[in-house]
Amino acid sequence: MPDQPGSNAIDVRSVRKVFGAGEYAVTALDTVSVSIRENEFFTLLGPSGCGKTTLLRLIAGFEYPSEGEILLYGKDIAGLPPHKRPVNTVFQSYALFPHMTVAENIAFGLEMLGRPKDEIKARVAEMLALVRMENLANRRTSQISGGQQQRVALARALAPQPKVLLLDEPLSALDYKLRKGMQIELKRLQHETGITFIFVTHDQEEALTMSDRIAVMTAGKILQVGSPRDIYDRPAERFVADFIGESNFLEAEVVSVENCRATVRLSSGAEISAAVPEGHSPSGRATIVVRPEHARIVPEGDGASLHGTVENVVYLGTDTHFHLRIDDGTLFVVRRQNSPDAAQGLAAGQRAGVAISADAAQLLRR
Amino acid sequence: MARRQRAYDIRRQPGFGLIALFTFFALYLPIAALVAYSFNAADSLSRWDGLSLRWFISAWNNQAVQDASIRSLLLATWAATLATIAATMAALATTRTPNYPGLTFKYAFINQPLMVPEIVTGVALLIVFSRIKVWTGYTGMGYLILAHTAFCIPFAYLPIRARLESMDLTLERAAADLYATPWRAFWRVTLPLLRPAIIAGFMLAFVISLDDVVITEFVKSGGQDTLPTYMLGQLRRETSPEINAIATVFLALSVVLVTVFYFVNRRRP
Fold this sequence. Notes:
The structure holds two protein chains of two kinds. Chain A has helices spanning 52-60, 102-112, 117-130, 146-158, 176-193, 204-210, 228-233, 238-243; strands at residues 8-19, 26-37, 41-45, 67-72, 75-76, 87-90, 164-168, 196-201, 213-218, 221-226, 248-258, 261-266, 271-275, 285-290, 295-298, 306-315, 319-326, 331-337, 351-356, 362-363. Chain A is α+β, with helices and mostly antiparallel strands. Chain A folds into two domains: 8-233, 3-Layer(aba) Sandwich (Rossmann fold), CATH 3.40.50.300; 246-363, CATH 2.40.50.140. In chain A, the strands form four sheets. Chain A has a six-stranded mixed β-sheet with strand order 6-7-8-3-9-10, with helices on both faces. Chain A has a five-stranded antiparallel β-sheet with strand order 13-12-11-14-20, with no helix packed on it. Chain A has a five-stranded antiparallel β-sheet with strand order 15-19-16-17-18, with no helix packed on it. In chain A, helix 3 (117-130) crosses helix 4 (146-158). Chain B has two domains: 2-38, no CATH class; 63-267, Orthogonal Bundle (MetI-like fold), CATH 1.10.3720.10. Chain B is globular and about 70 Å long. The A-B interface holds A 60-62, 81-84, 87-89, 91, 93, 95-99, 108-109, 112-113, 140, 142, 156-157, 160 and B 168, 170-171, 173-182, 184-185, 188-189, 192-193, 268-269.
């Protein structure tokens, strides 16, 4: 990982943020370190109250860290006020200036930077074209729809060409269809402008579809950083596996560890191979996670790793979920994609086996 | 269900119409009478002698009325301006800093002139200002302006604070995020959005100053009559219907002010 100063857009180093004092002190960020690369679409993902917005506000300068450093291309900016940081924010509420037109809103940052008039004019026109709002330039911001306000907020933040763009749950106020459209739009904007995006969301689907890398946060800590694939296929901790997608958790005994893989024995006695998170050396008892689509229902004994009784068959249109009660008492869900020729097969009460795809099991750190 | 809801309609309560009618007359009948009598041609306040503008003309040509009017308007303009500036700063300070113990005390402190009886303030100012007059030898309008500014501040403060409290703080954050220094963020974002409230605060302060009798009575030096204190003085001597005409002009002025304010406010989102 490139880690020499200056090679990353943002380096957050051992940042702590405590609100309040004494017995009322609340630790919003607990010694967080993360590096965000240049031109990256980086997402901070976590439930509300996990500290993701606090981290964003520390980078924007609306809050100052209690401890630690925040580097922007190698320069510590943690103590600078927001107007001295070359980063811009797209606010959750958009925060468009209601007494200005769309064009005046977009021009605001450039004006404050003291850019020449003709340059501002050209840049505003360019931004309006970028977000496809050319014909609404002279409207008041109260006269345009929510989706259009969103675009103006984006154009306004992008106009001064910030080194990093911060986006604080910008899509949460839009309805489902508009949100889907804006996800693609954001990705396109990031690609066209080449600006580093830091995106905050609690929506895992949003994070998975848009991000180059995701940091999963909870309780003021970053649990795991990785590509959407890494995060989904190789969750390192129970919280990550639980928060993103659906998961089956199995208790197992570690038999042997070799490189980044462990052989574990399940409660059924079957031994399978599981991936081990980086830097972790498991022993004794461990928890294994298997995604529902990474397992298949098979006849009992036919290479099955687990055995149990079908409790429920849930038809979901594109998929069918089989809820199995494994013989050790845990519930295990298998997802199967429906196809016209797929056999209807199982019904509740029947016995069945579960085959876990090679490479699908992941051992958790905790 | 519909019938039940109608039963809770306050307009259907017994006696509602009667009370409303009574209130309406109690509020506006005297004013209507005043306006009517200001157009009275008679020398007496109570006898009706046909329509005439003579008391308006007479008041207009009365040097003392002219002086008092100009003094009142100047005083109200100065006091309202200073009070609005002070109130704006106070409102910014009390809404744009994080909550801290003692803030409630500060609110009470700013609104103090609303609680303390005017007569107390009047006497207090009389004592203090008479000392200062002796020391400095200055006896001008400054004392009245200062006194009026002081009791106008809470009136200007209330609408401005209310507006600031309902104003989204992220707008100022957004300005800072877009490279505006705190000073420029204030002039370009906070102040324009605050303008209706500032105008409201100014108008309220202006009317309160224009209307004041008690404190003015205690603070004014000889020959510093404002319109209200002049009118009061007139009542004590002979009762000229001129004061009816002056009061009517006053009324018209305040109606115009309120109307203008209404339209100024409505224009903005």
